[in-house]
TrEMBL record:
It comes from the Bacteria. PROSITE patterns: ABC_TRANSPORTER_1 (PS00211), ABC_TRANSPORTER_2 (PS50893). Keywords: ATP-binding, Nucleotide-binding, Transport. The keyword Nucleus does not apply. This is ABC transporter ATP-binding protein. GO terms for biological process: transmembrane transport. Involved in beta-(1-->2)glucan export. Transmembrane domains (TMD) form a pore in the inner membrane and the ATP-binding domain (NBD) is responsible for energy generation. InterPro entries: AAA+_ATPase (IPR003593), ABC_transp_ATP-bind (IPR050319), ABC_transporter-like_ATP-bd (IPR003439), ABC_transporter-like_CS (IPR017871), P-loop_NTPase (IPR027417). Residues 21-267 form the ABC transporter domain.
Amino acid sequence: MTSSIEPPHVYTARASSEPILELRNVDFCYPAARRSAAEVLGGSRLHKINMIVRRGKAHGLIGESGSGKSTIAKLLLGLTAPQSGQIFFDGELLRPDRLAAFRLRVQPVFQSPLDALDPITPIGKQIIAPLLVNFNMKSSECQARLAAAISAVGLSGEILGKLPHQISGGQAQRVNIARALILDPEVLICDEPVSALDMTVQAQILNLLSDLRESRGLSLLFISHDIRSVAYLCSEITVLKRGSIVESGSRDEVLLDPKTDYMKSLLEAVPNSGLGLETASPSKPFSRQIGRRDLPAEG
Ligand SMILES: Nc1ncnc2c1ncn2[C@@H]1O[C@H](COP(=O)(O)OP(=O)(O)OP(=O)(O)O)[C@@H](O)[C@H]1O
């Protein structure tokens, strides 16, 4: 179905810290879990989730495996609906009739960058696909937006004719981010976007996300097992345990003054217990904060 909404402009810079996405008292349970008390106890339900992602800010979501982080991502992408509670986008209740427009403005970036690409379609075609599908645009009409999107993620035009197996994992994640940006979204939901990449490339993608947040006023939900990445990128953090929020607040409140044993144990598990919080700042490249050499722009 073609959207009746206007295609996005090449770039929109936005800034503010008003709520852009909000979960209010959200309960969710997978159908299979409703039949299995053991699963429910194991955490396959979300219970009374209250969380705000602010415009132009990066919000970190952490918690052990199975705590419900990806389920929250699915709810915030409109891929599934809560059993109770409400989701607000830009101050408006997310109703079924608003889902189509919402899905253009909130875009996902997933964990396995190569799996998220079609193996037999050239990169350039994949990046403009959301414009072709949603706005019925011709390929020739997409070229200015395509050039802006690949430039925004630090890729050159040579990559456009390649197939996914001809590019690196880091380049593939940049392609996925470009494909999300081509719709000029307001929010990126990033579910473990760097965990499948090697360490040096992780730093490059984190710096890219940080730059995009600053330069375009993009809001980010950043889901990660890696507390150091969250400490670097995010100004607010929510901590999830077995489907319930156990801590939330500013980065420093949660990481420097943890209230729960659970959060303390997550922090104790950080390698070398080095969060570098005294120096952590999105104005400093991630590689410097964790003591690595500066890295080339394209990975
Ligand atoms: N489609 C599904 N049907 C039933 N249960 C599911 C489904 N997807 C996830 N679950 C269960 O819901 C719980 C939360 O899963 P979720 O993927 O949200 O956790 P997570 O915190 O993202 O974990 P990870 O860090 O390992 O990705 C887990 O118990 C999981 O087994």
